[in-house]
Specification:
Blueprint: H1 5-11, H2 22-32, H3 45-51, H4 56-71, H5 77-107, E1 114-119, E2 122-127, E3 136-140, E4 148-160, H6 162-165, E5 171-172, E6 191-192, E7 197-209, H7 215-223, H8 232-261, H9 266-280, H10 283-302, E8 305-307, H11 312-318, E9 321-325, E10 336-341, E11 345-347, H12 353-364, E12 369-373, E13 376-380, H13 383-394, E14 406-411, E15 416-423, E16 426-433, H14 435-441, H15 446-461, E17 465-474, E18 488-496, H16 503-512, E19 516-520, H17 525-535, E20 543-546, H18 547-551, H19 555-561, E21 565-569, H20 573-585, E22 590-594, H21 600-605, E23 608-612, H22 618-623, E24 626-628, H23 634-677, H24 688-698, H25 700-707, H26 732-757, H27 761-784, H28 798-816, H29 820-823, H30 831-858
Parallel strand pairs: 9-19, 9-22, 19-21, 20-21, 22-23, 23-24
Antiparallel strand pairs: 1-2, 1-3, 3-7, 4-5, 4-6, 4-7, 8-24, 10-11, 10-18, 12-13, 14-15, 15-16, 16-17, 17-18
Helix pairs in contact: 3-5, 4-5, 4-9, 5-10, 5-24, 8-9, 8-23, 9-23, 9-24, 10-23, 10-25, 11-23, 12-13, 19-20, 23-25, 23-26, 23-27, 24-27, 25-27, 25-28, 26-27, 26-30, 27-28, 27-30
GO biological process, one term: inorganic cation transmembrane transport
Protein name: Cation-translocating P-type ATPase
InterPro entries: ATPase_P-typ_cation-transptr_C, ATPase_P-typ_cation-transptr_N, ATPase_P-typ_cyto_dom_N, ATPase_P-typ_P_site, ATPase_P-typ_TM_dom_sf, ATPase_P-typ_transduc_dom_A_sf, ATPase_P-type_domA, HAD-like_sf
C-alpha cells in the first residue's frame, strides 16, 4: 500500500515547500545511501594476468619448464622460451580486455548530469549523483529524471518510460493517491522513475529512492545473479586442450618407459619425454586463437561493433536465435506520420495544398518544440506532437507567425487539446484528440462521419496511432467554456514508430543464414504484431503473445512450444529472461539485443548480449557482451558473418597446428619405439628447442595468416552450428590425424637419411628440422582454403605470403648462421640433402592437391 504524501514528508524529514536542510541531507545520505548504481568490481591488471594461465595446456608447459630446469639447470634455454611465450600470450589477452573496457568507458555518458532541487528554502541545480531521499525536485519537458520520486503536483505531465518498460508511448502522470496493494510498475501513474524523461508538462516531486533502491537499481541488481558461462568456442577448445593434455601425459609416460627399455638413463629418458610433451602441446595455439579473435574484434570495431571480451566474437557467429527489443532497435524510436485522411486515405507523397494546411493546423495545436540551440537541434515534448511538427517542417510550412491566443491543455480524461489562433480576420479554435471523441461531437453529415470512422479503423488495424482534428470559427475571441462542444471535422492523421529502413533486409539475411528473429517488447501487441509482420518476423503460423498470457503458461509448456511464438508484447524484465532460458533449453545459442534498462538481465542471460551504443543505458552496456555503436540492427548481420568466418579460421588454425604436433609426436614416438624393439638406436630426432622453435615461430606466423583469411562467400548460406556439434565435425579429427601421420613419416624419413646415410646424428636432426618446418610452411597454403595452391586466390592473403617468406628466412638463419646453429645444435646442409628435404616437404602438397581435385569433381 502506498504511503500518503504527508507520511513520506514526515518519514524523510522533508518539507515540500522548503526542501531539506544541509543537516537533513547528510542524515538521509547516510541512512538511504548515495544516488549511484553499484558497479561490478573490475579485476585489476595482476588478476587479469593470472587468469590468462587458467588453461590445462599452459599449466602442463609450465610444469615441464620447471622440471627441465630442476633436472639440468645448465640447459635452461627451452624453459626460458616456454616462459617467454606463455607470458606474451597472457599480455596479449590482458591488453585486448583492457582495450575493450576503455572503448566501453568512452561510450558511457551521463543520462542526467544535473537536477533542479529545492534545498534550504532555495531553488538550485546540483549534480544528479548528489540527490538524496527526501529531496524536492522540479522537472519539466526535456528533463531526465535521476531518481525515483512521488509526484507532489503536476501540470499536463507525460513521461517517456521506454528505457524502463519498453513502452514507446509516453505515460500520462497525476499526483493522486493510489489506494491499491501491489501496484504494477505500469500503473504507478503518480510516480517518477530514474532513467526516464519528461516529454510534456512539469512537476514537483519528492525523492523516494536513490541508487540501487530505484527501479533501475533493482534491475541492475538482477545482473549479479547471472553467472558468466563459457562460450561454445571456449568450451570446445577447453575440451581439445584437456584431451591433448591427457594424451600428452600418457604418451610421455609410454616413451619414458620405451627409452628406459632401450637402455637410456632416466635423465635422458625424461628429457625425451619432456621433448615429447613440448611436441604434443601446441604452444602457439592459445596465442594464435587470441590474435585471430583480436583481429576479428578489430574488423568488427570498424563495422561499428565493440566487443568487450574476445570469445564473444564467435558466439554471435554460431547463434541461431536473435531476441530483439522493438523500440529503438527494430524501429527508429521516433513517431512518424504515415497516413492522412480528409476525404480519402492517402500517403504523404500524394497530398494537395488543403491537406497540407490541415497538417499545419495539427502542428499549431502542439506544445512540443524543435529548437536550434547553438547549432544543436533540441527536440522537446511528446513524440506524437514532435511527429506532427516534423511532417509540417518537411512540407516547408512556417507556423511561427500564428500567435496562440488561448490554450486548453490536453488531459487524459478529455482526450483533447485546443488552441485558438487568428486567421483571415476570424478566430479559429483548433482541437486535436482522440478520433472517437471528436467524431462524436462533430456537425458533419452522417455519411462523412461514417467514412471517417471507417478510415480510423483501417489505420488502427495497421497499428497506426490516429489523431483527429476539429475546427470552430468565431467572430471574436471565444471563452474557453464554450469550446470543445461541437466541431467541424477536418481530418485524421495516422502515425507510428516506423521500422528502421535497413532492418527488413537484415532480418531476411538472418533467415537465409538460419537465424530466427524474435521480437520482445513492452509495447502493445497490435503495434508489435504490425511491425513484426512488416519486417518478416511474424510469419504465417507464428503467434504473438502478451505478458499476461505468458504468465499463464507453465515453464514446461513454454519450453515445449517456444518455437511457436515470434512476438512477445507488454513484457516485464523477468519475462525476457524466461524467454531466453526457454530457447536455451532447446539447445539454441541466443543473442539478445536491446538498449533499455529493462533489457539488461536478458542481455546478461543470453549467450551474447548486444547493447546499443547511442540510445543504450549504462546498465545495458555493462550487461552486454557487445556494443552496437550505431544502434543498427544490421550491424548484427555483419557480426554474424565475421563470427562465422573467425570460427572457420580458428578451425583451420587448429587443423594446421595439431597436424604438425601429431607429426612431431609420431616422429619421436616411432624413433623411441624402433629403438626399443629393434637393434637400431635412433636417438632423439628432434630436441625440445627445435620443437619450440617450430611450434612458436615457424607454425605460428602462417597460422596468423590463416586467421586473417576473409570469410568464404558461402558462409552466410550455411546453417548455424549446433551447440552439440563437435569441434572436430566434418571429419576434422580424421583429417588432422592423416595429415599428422604424413608429416611424421616424412620427418622421420629425413632423420633416418641423415642419421644413417650421412652417419651424423646432428645432420639427421637438421634434416628432420628442415623437413618438418618446410612441410608446415607449404601446408599452410593447403589449409587456408579449398582452392588449389596453384590458383590466384591462394596468394591474395598478403600476410600469409609475408609469413611464408619470413618462415623460410628464419629456417635458413638457424641452420646456416654460425653461432645461432650451435645454440640449436644444427649443422649446415649440402645442396643434395637440402633438396631431399624440400622434396619430402612437397609430398603433403601433392597429396592435398589430389584430395582437393577429387572433392571438386564430386561437387
Amino acid at each position: 500500500m502506498q504511503k500518503k504524501l504527508y507520511e513520506l514528508e514526515r518519514e524523510f524529514k522533508s518539507d515540500v515547500q522548503n526542501g531539506l536542510t544541509d543537516e537533513q541531507i547528510a542524515e538521509n545520505r547516510e541512512q538511504y545511501g548515495k544516488n549511484a548504481l553499484e558497479e561490478k568490481k573490475k579485476a585489476n591488471l595482476f588478476v587479469k594476468f593470472l587468469m590468462q594461465f587458467n588453461d590445462v595446456l599452459i599449466i602442463i608447459l609450465l610444469i615441464a619448464a620447471v622440471i627441465s630446469v630442476v633436472i639440468e639447470p645448465s640447459e635452461f634455454v627451452d624453459s626460458i622460451i616456454i616462459l617467454v611465450v606463455v607470458i606474451i600470450n597472457a599480455i596479449l589477452g590482458v591488453f585486448q580486455e583492457n582495450k575493450a573496457e576503455k572503448s566501453l568507458e568512452a561510450l558511457k555518458k551521463m543520462s542526467s548530469p544535473t537536477s533542479k532541487v529545492i534545498r534550504n528554502h532555495s531553488l538550485m541545480t546540483i549534480d544528479s549523483k548528489d540527490l538524496v531521499v527526501g529531496d524536492i525536485i522540479l522537472v519539466e519537458a526535456g528533463d531526465s529524471i535521476s531518481a525515483d520520486a512521488r509526484i507532489i503536483e503536476c501540470t499536463n505531465l507525460s513521461v517517456d518510460e521506454s528505457a524502463l518498460t519498453g513502452e514507446s508511448v509516453p505515460v500520462h502522470k497525476h499526483n493522486e493517491y493510489i489506494e491499491k496493494e501491489d501496484i504494477p510498475l505500469g500503473d504507478m501513474k503518480n510516480c517518477l522513475f530514474s532513467s526516464t524523461y519528461v516529454t510534456n508538462g512539469k512537476a514537483k516531486a519528492i525523492v523516494t529512492n536513490v541508487g540501487m533502491a530505484t527501479q533501475i537499481g533493482r534491475i541492475a541488481g538482477m545482473l549479479n545473479e547471472q553467472k558468466d558461462v563459457a562460450t561454445p568456442l571456449q568450451q570446445k577448445l577447453a575440451t581439445v586442450g584437456k584431451l591433448i593434455g591427457i594424451m600428452a601425459l600418457i604418451i610421455c609416460a609410454v616413451v619414458f618407459v620405451l627409452e628406459m627399455i632401450g637402455g637410456l638413463n632416466w635423465i635422458d629418458a625424461f628429457k625425451t619425454a619432456i621433448a615429447l610433451a613440448v611436441a604434443a602441446i601446441p604452444e602457439g595455439l592459445a596465442t594464435v586463437v587470441t590474435i585471430v579473435l583480436a583481429i576479428g574484434v578489430s574488423k568488427m570495431s570498424k563495422q561499428n561493433a565493440i566487443v568487450k571480451k574476445l570469445p564473444a566474437v564467435e558466439t554471435l557467429g554460431s547463434c541461431n536465435v536473435v531476441c530483439s527489443d522493438k523500440t529503438g532497435t527494430l524501429t527508429q524510436n521516433k513517431m512518424t506520420v504515415m497516413k492522412i485522411y480528409q476525404t480519402n486515405l492517402k500517403d504523404l507523397k500524394d497530398l494537395d495544398e488543403k491537406e497540407r494546411q490541415m497538417l499545419s493546423y495539427f502542428a499549431i495545436c502542439c506544445d512540443a518544440a524543435i529548437q536550434n540551440k547553438n547549432g544543436k537541434i533540441e527536440r522537446i515534448g511528446d513524440p506524437t506532437e514532435l511527429a506532427l511538427l516534423d511532417v509540417n517542417i518537411s512540407f516547408g510550412k512556417d507556423i511561427s507567425s500564428y500567435k496562440r491566443l488561448l490554450d486548453i491543455p490536453f488531459d487524459s480524461e478529455r482526450k483533447l487539446m485546443t488552441t485558438v489562433i487568428q486567421e483571415n480576420g476570424k478566430y479559429l479554435a483548433i482541437t486535436k484528440g482522440a478520433p472517437d471523441v471528436i467524431l462524436s461531437r462533430c456537425t458533419n453529415a452522417a455519411k462523412e462521419v461514417q467514412q471517417a470512422i471507417s478510415a480510423n479503423e483501417q489505420m488502427a488495424k495497421k497499428a497506426l496511432r490516429v489523431l483527429a482534428l476539429g475546427i470552430q470559427s468565431f467572430d471574436s475571441l471565444p471563452d474557453a467554456a464554450i469550446l470543445e462542444q461541437s466541431f467541424t471535422f477536418v481530418g485524421l492523421v495516422g502515425m507510428i514508430d516506423p521500422a528502421r529502413l535497413e532492418v527488413k533486409d537484415s532480418i531476411a539475411l538472418a533467415k537465409e543464414a538460419g537465424i530466427r528473429t524474435i521480437m520482445i517488447t513492452g509495447d502493445h501487441i497490435v503495434t508489435a504484431s504490425a511491425i513484426a509482420e512488416e519486417l518478416g518476423i511474424l510469419r504465417e503460423g507464428d503467434k504473438a503473445i502478451t505478458s499476461t498470457e505468458l504468465d499463464q503458461l507453465s515453464d514446461d509448456y513454454l519450453n515445449d512450444h517456444i518455437e511457436d511464438y515470434s512476438v512477445y508484447a507488454r513484457v516485464a524484465p523477468k519475462d525476457k529472461v524466461r524467454i531466453v532460458e526457454a530457447w536455451q533449453k532447446k539447445e539454441a545459442i541466443v543473442a539478445m539485443t536491446g538498449d533499455g534498462v529493462n533489457d539488461a538481465p536478458a542481455l546478461k542471460k543470453a549467450d551474447i548480449g548486444c547493447a546499443m551504443g547511442i540510445t543504450g543505458t549504462d546498465v545495458s552496456k555493462e550487461a552486454a557482451d557487445m556494443i552496437l555503436v550505431d544502434d543498427n540492427f544490421a550491424t548484427i548481420i555483419s557480426a554474424v558473418k565475421e563470427g562465422r568466418g573467425i570460427y572457420n579460421n580458428i578451425k583451420k588454425c587448429v587443423k594446421y597446428l595439431l597436424s604438425s604436433n601429431i607429426g612431431e609426436v609420431l616422429t619421436i614416438f616411432l624413433a623411441s619405439f624402433i629403438s626399443a624393439v629393434s637393434p637400431l638406436t635412433l636417438g632423439v630426432p628432434l630436441l625440445p628447442t627445435h620443437l619450440l622453435w617450430i611450434n612458436l615461430i615457424t607454425d605460428s606466423l602462417p597460422a596468423f595468416g590463416i586467421g586473417m583469411e576473409e570469410a568464404e562467400d558461402s558462409v552466410m548460406s550455411e546453417q548455424p552450428r549446433s551447440k552439440k556439434e563437435s569441434f572436430f565435425a566434418d571429419k576434422l579429427g580424421f583429417k588432422i590425424a592423416v595429415e599428422g601421420i604424413i608429416i611424421g613419416l616424412m620427418t622421420l624419413t629425413a632423420y633416418i637419411i641423415g642419421h644413417f646415410i650421412e652417419h651424423s646424428h646432428e645432420i639427421g636432426q637438421t634434416m628432420a628440422f628442415l623437413t618438418l618446418s618446410s612441410t608446415q610452411l607449404f601446408h599452410a597454403y593447403n589449409v587456408k582454403s579449398n582452392h588449389s595452391v596453384f590458383s590466384k586466390y591462394s596468394y591474395k592473403n598478403k600476410f600469409m605470403n609475408i609469413a611464408f617468406l619470413i618462415g623460410f628466412a628464419l629456417q635458413f638463419l638457424v641452420i646456416y648462421c654460425p653461432g645461432i646453429n650451435d645454440i640449436f645444435n644444427l649443422s649446415p646442409l649440402g645442396i643434395g640433402n637440402f633438396m631431399i628435404c624440400m622434396g619430402l616437404s612437397l609430398v603433403m602438397v601433392v597429396i592435398m592437391e589430389i584430395v582437393k581435385f577429387v572433392n571438386r569433381r564430386q561437387l
